[in-house]
Write a structure and sequence with these properties.
Length: 457
Amino acid sequence: MGAWEKPIDSGKIPDSNTHFDVIVVGGGPGGSAAAAYNALNGCKVLLLEKEIWPRDKICGDAVGGKSLSHVKELGVLDMIESTPHYVVDSIVFGSANGSEVRVMLPKESYEKMGLQSGYALPRMQFDYMMFQRGQEIVRENGGSVIQDFSVHEIMFENENGVHKIKGVKGRIGGRKSDNDELVFTSAVTIGAGGYNCPVSRVITELHNEPHRDDDHFCGGYREYWDNVEGLGGESGAIEIHFIDEVLPGYFWLFPVQGNRVNVGIGMLISEHRKLKKSRKKSLKKIQKWVIEEHPRFKPRFANSTLVSGSEKGWQLPFGSPRKNAEFQPRRVAMAGAMCVGDAASLVDPFSGEGIGNALLSAKMTSKHFDKTQHTDGFTDEAAKEYMADLWDALGSELKNSKTLQQVMKWKLLTNWFVKKASKKEEIGKMMSEMIASKESQKMLWSPWFLMKTLLLP
């Protein structure tokens, strides 16, 4: 049994009606990090997780270099490196006409530029370590942690015409009677519960704004396979393929440890619905065809084995800008609440990577919440400052990722792009940094840089 497969003792359950400085709803990487950062900032934190560890999380399993500074800061990097994982040293991009470019991520060169390549490992393993360390930090600083807790109500009040979230109500496990209901209040509640987070839903509902837009939601389907030809070991490439049968999405092959590979498809839900109307194919059926029939991939899976029970689908909320939205990518904070990661719709529209942005937003919540300043509750003004700061940090990157996503929808452009990338070093560097860059690489996202890179000979 691996270290990440054992139960986690998260301590005593606090009494109902206990007040906290911060409540975090969701114990994934974003929630665990938000809880830890706020606890380190002197706050009494309650971290709530609806599952019981260990638990699986459906994902592509890539942890970009952008995430690693936060992972190290919270004391998790050494834990990861002491367990089986895959070091990403390159990225292969393939197009519909068979063109491929392999973007190398040489360790020595990246260290000179202040960059880090990424890792790939199952989310069951990564999330376990993030939660384990997060709950330790919370409890060491006077807070509490509850697993198997289902939030069924986000409490709010109207104060002088302004709605303010005040806390949560919920139950542990299968308990259903009113006597089993637990109530917790806080100065700020942080939503980290994924694409359908109850905190983010209430924030948008209270402001009469849409929470979901299928043009900005991606459907994903994942399987684990052993012994896929050309992949495996301790380090090497991850692969992203833009092929006819999957466009306007992509097919990925991400080794995670040993000879095991995360194999999946991602596609905008709005585009997949158009595809289903014309071809009547689920992502699962499309992937089955690619693996069993596609001339480029069939030979690579000839001697491979599907890991039984690993076939799962999920959704990702992209951080691409939305039309007529007062706050981009959508409203993710209000008086009494902030959201992080997927709950804040921060997944990169091109690469599909979301952990880096989740950790960045998690740390940012501790910058914007001050338990002394916000004794009467996190203010609406502070919420607006958080949203502005968040978009200032990520907006340029997310907008340009959306542009690249749109380019990849068109086969001829995709073929041209990959062919050009194979011949032009700047494009290869840009594509690798979509996953591997630190926040300091702001130059990458300037419109002039993109125009010069894509259009000039």
